[in-house]
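User: Fold both of these, please.

Assistant: Here is the first one.
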Amino acid sequence: MNSRPCAPAAAIAGTVFPHPVSPELASALRRALQALPQPPARFAVAVSGGADSAMLALHAAAVARETGAGVVLLHVHHGLQDAADGWRDQVEALADLLGLPLRQARVAVATAGGQGIEAAARDARYAALARLAAEEGVGLILLAHHRNDQAETVLLRLLRGTGLGGMAAMAPLTSRDGLAYLRPWLEQDRETILRAARQFAGATCWHAVQDPTNADPRYTRAALRELLAPVLDARWPGWRAIVARHARHVAQANEILDEVAREDFAALEPGPDGASFSLAAWRRLSPARQVHVLRHWLERNGARMPTEARMNDLLRQLRGLHSLGHDRQLRVEQAGHLIRCHRGRVWVEPRPGAGTLAPR
């Protein structure tokens, strides 16, 4: 890789940063970091070697100079592509260019659990990032998802029949495995990122890697990107911004519904651990709120959401029980959990391997 200087350095907050940066992308990143409850003294950036994550690493390095924050790059080698070693080499070259430390992990993607390759790779990547972050002692990882990714996620979840929470798509700030994940560019169009990548390449001769699966319609997201998106682009050029705005509105509505669900559940005379509630109190809710509070209750107890058909069956049984809940025939299994009714209370807990569910 030739790192010849081909463009003037960019001035950042009174200091000279040795690489050109995008004012729009730097400003968006700065706002996202400043909006955190506590600005991080040190954070990480997940870098694959593609244009999006490479530009996030570049702008993180630039913005961090303003505050003196420390930045570490994290790279996960999946080994799924023959070119993966080359991607690792490019990430190492990028880290050298930016003067940032790089930590790497190699993972084996297991698909025997019934997951598709995309989901399995994603889970393996998050697990590896969590390990690397723990080793580095950082609690915040930046991800390079942008508005195009957000729009694709909304469409994919819509086609898969997700619920309202899923339609909110990716949140700017989420937690997983005890870590905070920040997506500062969800409002940024990918063309802005690609333009910054071209400027960076012109200045340094460092070029982002290209993952062939991103354009392979055998993969679900790539199929949407290659087959459906061009049709939408031709008919509705601004569809990505519209869909991303829809995701924001759904997220806001979902926050309100979550507040309602918490208030409704608090009125159901819940048990100390939240695993049970009063059947009679639940029946006093409207049908729509009965459904919503059930979903809230199942989620807080770690149960997977039932399909619409299974939820309707659970509702039918709960509504048909004896008013005091003495009908012992209610027994609903839901993805490893068991739901039963005893003495007017509805219970859920992980399905035991043997024995019976003991009311508490």
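And the second sequence with its predicted structure:
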Amino acid sequence: MALLFIGEVEKLTGIKAHVLRYWETVLPFMKPQKDLQGRRTYTQRDIDLIFRIKYLTEEKNMPLEAAGEQLLNELSSKGGSSESVRVSQMRDELVKIYKTVQDTQDKIK
């Protein structure tokens, strides 16, 4: 995946740009690179982290700081690979989809 600007990341993740900028002030590992014009550029790893933080804060109702600590623990215990974060995020998304399907099936019955 190519580098994405903050507006593109906002559309992709559903996280508002001002929230992403706030996360940078609270979470030390959320520091996207900036291009020559000073625009934030996000890599696939950055996006994986954003989705994971989104899951922890919205689905698990964790405060942002606690979600950051959780993510740091996950990264350090798994060697910090973006692949492990991506797999974890995909698993969490699948669980969310499964629950949505179950809820829909319950409403149909």
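Residues 62 and 74 are 15 Å apart (CA to CA).
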